Amino acid sequence: MFNFKEIISVTLILFSVIDILGSIPIVITLRKKVGTIESGKATLVSGIIMVGFLFVGEQILRLFGLDVASFSLAGALIMFLIGMEMVLGIEIFKTDPSAGKSTSIVPLAFPLIAGAGTMTTLISLRAAYQLPNILLGIAINLILVYLVLKSSVWLEKKLGPAGFNILKVFGIILLSIAIKLFKNQLAQW
User: Fold this and answer.
1) Which domain holds residue 15?
2) Structural domain tally of the chain?
3) Is pLDDT at 98 greater than 60 in this prediction?
4) Cβ-proximal residues to 133 (8 Å cutoff; 6+ apart), any chain
């Protein structure tokens, strides 16, 4: 049932798509904005989104008359707005004061961790790999995501104030990635 080679392949593919290490500057920016990140909640919600989409993603999109390309465009737009926040120092994603300050679900769990790229990758993986191996690859990635989110305070201390100012460069990179995703989806249309 379990195939070690498939598990490694799925884990590495998802790791590169989720890119939690590349998201460290965004995680730190979000934590600075709201004060705390609920690592467990963000990881759990990301896992639910990924596993749910693995099983019924295409059907849900079809139910709403959507295609994967439209879904990817929506995720790219959210990533673009997060990049704008980082570069310009503005607040686009306003938090509801009555709900407490939290970015654990939006934009952290979706679209940064379990975004359109991750979800479309899961659909592709479903066609090429056995389901138990995909689920184990998701679990391994969620453990890595949790560890990175949990260590964001430590990572920020290691960067220091000067290092944090450099993070604006990552905002530009995030904008570029969002534009690339947007452009690729428009080209497919």
Assistant:
1) 4-91+102-188
2) 1
3) no
4) 2, 3, 6, 7, 10
